Amino acid sequence: MRGTSIVLAAALAFAGASCTAPAAAESIVNAPAAKRTAKEGSGLKTAIFAGGCFWGVEAVFSHMKGVKSAVSGYHGGTQKSANYRVVSSGMTDHAEAVRVTYDPKVVRYDQLLQVFFSVVADPTLKNRQGPDTGPQYRAALVPMSAEQNAVAKAYLAQMKASGVWKAPIVTGIERAQAFYPAEDYHQDFALKNPNHGYIKRWDAPKVAGLKKLYPGFYSASFQRN
């Protein structure tokens, strides 16, 4: 038990050094409701979102009604390099990402996009989000079906024409590749570590933004993996 605690403490210390604590969280944005709504039928669906450090991405989606799981991991790159220490070097093709499984009868893909760009990711930043810099922290949409791809393209075009963001929107769509779940200590990180400095100053405000802007989608409970 003591050995396990030491390993976990070391892992969390390294995690804290990589997902660094900023001076303040960014403001939430009223992203427009999608004009092109998703029509995905029944049954659970899956999509991948990259939006900087995966702790906050996972935390927001885990507090959404209709989301059945939100798994932190690495999208792109190879299985050999899909570990936190290597990915954090910025020398792989991976992006820290979250694989979201959801019920489209409760929350549609286009609504996930609206929430994502309202409280999770700044679409005007290239290869960084907040204090975290490097290609592994890029914001990207990874559709898993033709319908999701069409909705994502339409929504990005709508965002660019909306005037909501003053700087150019650089977030793009990436082809779905292999997704490798992150180490166990990253899963449900915000739930397990509510007093972690990064979570308190960076990710908790994102969850608060979800509750404020989208109370109908907000769930007080955290959907565990």
Fold and architecture overview:
Helices cover 36% and strands 16% of the residues. It is α+β, with helices and mostly antiparallel strands and 225 residues long. The chain has one domain: Peptide Methionine Sulfoxide Reductase, Chain A (2-Layer Sandwich), CATH 3.30.1060.10. The strands form 2 sheets. A 6-stranded mixed sheet has the order 7-6-1-3-2-8, covered by helices on one side. Strands 4-5 form a two-stranded antiparallel sheet. The radius of gyration is 16 Å and the shape is globular. 42% of the residues are buried. The N terminus is likely disordered.
Structural class: alpha+beta
Distance between the termini: 23 Å
Strand content: 15-25%
CATH second-level architecture: 2-Layer Sandwich
Q: Provide the succession of SSEs.
A: HEHEHEHEEEHEEHH
How many DSSP H or I helices? 7
Using the coordinates shown, work out and report the CATH topology. Peptide Methionine Sulfoxide Reductase, Chain A
CATH class label:
Alpha Beta
Low-confidence stretches: 1-17, 21-25
Major sheet strand order: 7-6-1-3-2-8
The CATH H-level superfamily is Peptide methionine sulphoxide reductase MsrA
Number of β-strand runs: 8
